Amino acid sequence: MQIDGAGWHKSKGLKIPENMKLVFQPPYSPQANPTEHIWDEIRENNMKNITFKTLNDVINTLCDELNELRANVERVKSMTLFLHINIAL
Q: Looking at the whole model, is its pTM more than 0.85?
């Protein structure tokens, strides 16, 4: 399983199943982290150069975009299905 360098991924209390190997991605490697591409898409489409009046406005905008992505699987795949992930599937 490919993981980033988050502290909880390196915790001594983390129990890793015998049939799993953790592979740490290099620091500052957004191209290896599909979540970064989703967040970029959300920011560019609906949150760029906007000043929100309330935190609820931010939350509602974010939820709307996430729901739109959930409804469009092919769009999400186009942003996140990198070759190394596709091979692993």
A: no
